Amino acid sequence: MMEETGKTTPDKVSLSNGSTSTAAVNGAAYRSTEEIEIPVPWGTVAGKWWGSRQKQPVLALHGWQDNAGTFDRLCPLLPDEVPILAIDLPGHGKSSHYPKGMHYYVFWDGISLIRRIVHYYGWTKIWLLGHSLGGALSFMYAAAFPDDVEGFISIDIAGPPARCHRKQAANLGESIDRFLRYETFPDLKTPCYKYDDAIDVVLAAYDGSVDLQSAEVLSRRGMVPAPAHLNKEGFCFSRDLRLKVALMGMLSLEQILAHAERIKCKVLNIRAVPGLQFDNPDYYPSVVEAMSKSSDKVVYLEIPGTHHLHLTTPERISEHVTDFLYNRN
Fold first, then answer.
1. pLDDT score, position 102
2. pLDDT at 6 over 60
């Protein structure tokens, strides 16, 4: 963990910045970035485009309840000639929330979202970079469209986490009731925090997976000043509250392995150690093994770090990611 020297004051955080910008972290200059918006039927998907707009980028997908800022400390360490488009998934960061009445089925919705983005830009073969949920979506898209993906990089996840269906059935009723409560949660009861208190909430929620600086990076897209109609001071979290009930419709290990067997592309899988812990100890090695039988190439690496090692210690994986991307053509 890096030395903590105190929280950044809100005016230095720039919770809502616009077009092209540069910044610096740990003395390394960021590449030029541009905020973009992609139209979708329910609003817009926001993103941050790193590098040239004249080349097709690697599409980068963040983890559950994170945002595109999760790649802010990794992207500056990657080759300038490799553009990256990091998006906020629906309900996250600066992207539109789903309309009322719609559930988030994150391990399925994301496949359609990637397809929408591919069609919007007219891409053919694509490359994906994903952390956690984003890595699972990269896996699922490569299985759904095996001829359309050249390769993907997955950080600390093999595919969608395997879920015991009996356990899921037992929790279904409670999940539906929770969703309905969140959907009708009064706007005026939206919690607002002083900046330092909000950062403390983030740090507590991640339970050691991120450090102070990483929490502040995520908060640039994950927090907004309290809206005027709330008559409150401080900051609110921007993500959709309904995302807390977004893990319905998960897959069994058998289903995940069936998808793994369809993947043809090159795969770089970076496993954080200790990283995220999974209920089924067979899940990770069996999924990687299944991909290895069908894919062009699977590179599996174990790197010391937390589940968010790409954000807290990006220098530990940047060379591996660079080597993989340099050999992508």
1. 93
2. no
Write out the DSSP string of 33-86.
EEEEEEEETTEEEEEEEES-SSSPPEEEE--TT--GGGGTTTGGGS-TTS-EEE
Ranking 12-16, 178-182, 213-217 by mean pLDDT, the lowest is: 12-16
The amino acid that residue 206 corresponds to is Y
Region 31-42: mean pLDDT is 94
Quick one: tokens of 223? Answer: 């927090």
Q: Active-site residue 132, yes or no?
A: yes
Q: Which of 132, 209, 286, 318 is catalytic?
A: 132
Return the SS3 of 99. coil
> CA 34, CA 283: separation in Å to the nearest integer?
38
Instruction: Determine the residue type at 278.
Output: F
Q: Count CB-CB contacts under 10 A for residue 315.
A: 12
Strand order in the sheet with 84-87: 33-40, 43-50, 84-87, 58-61, 126-131, 149-155, 266-274, 297-305
pLDDT tens string 129-161 = 999 999 999 999 999 999 999 999 999 999 999
Non-local (6+) Cβ contacts of 47 within 8 A are 35, 36, 37, 38, 68, 85, 86, 87, 88
* pLDDT at residue 26 is higher than 50: no
Detail the DSSP E strand segments found in the chain. Answer: 24-25, 28-29, 33-40, 43-50, 58-61, 84-87, 126-131, 149-155, 223-225, 235-237, 266-274, 297-305
Taking the C-alpha atoms of residue 80 and residue 77, their distance in angstroms, rounded to an integer, is 9
